[in-house]
Amino acid sequence: xxxxxxxxxxxxxxxxxxxxxxxxxxxxxxxxxxxxxxxxxxxxxxxxxxxxxxxxxxxxxxxxxxxxxxxxxxxxxxxxxxxxxxxxxxxxxxxxxxxxxxxxxxxxxxxxxxxxxxxxxxxxxxxxxxxxxxxxxxxxxxx
Length: 143
Prior knowledge:
This protein is mostly helical. 69% of the residues lie in helices and 0% in strands. It has helices at 2-8, 17-32, 39-56, 65-89, 95-113, 124-137.
């Protein structure tokens, strides 16, 4: 909720939202220790978020092939880092935890770019998804 309030309230520019969401995923992953599967999404979305911040803070165009390529690179690098951490540190990193952020980020980016409401420049839809996914991962009795 604080994340949406910071962005929607104008404290932070909208382009910071993805980086902050990624950091929130990483915080939830740290709370769940090695048993939660938020490590891959956290790393992937954080890297994409900082890619967007570095690109958009200078007023570069959103509809750029270079940005698409950098975003794909960031998603892939995050997935590779998550897989390496999973194998070396025993963190839960499944193929689904790597694939799902790619699908969701691509889908949400397309909906935002096509100006489909309520996805256009709104953080609340994403905050609700973040809370739901985090709550699912942190539910009691999870092995």
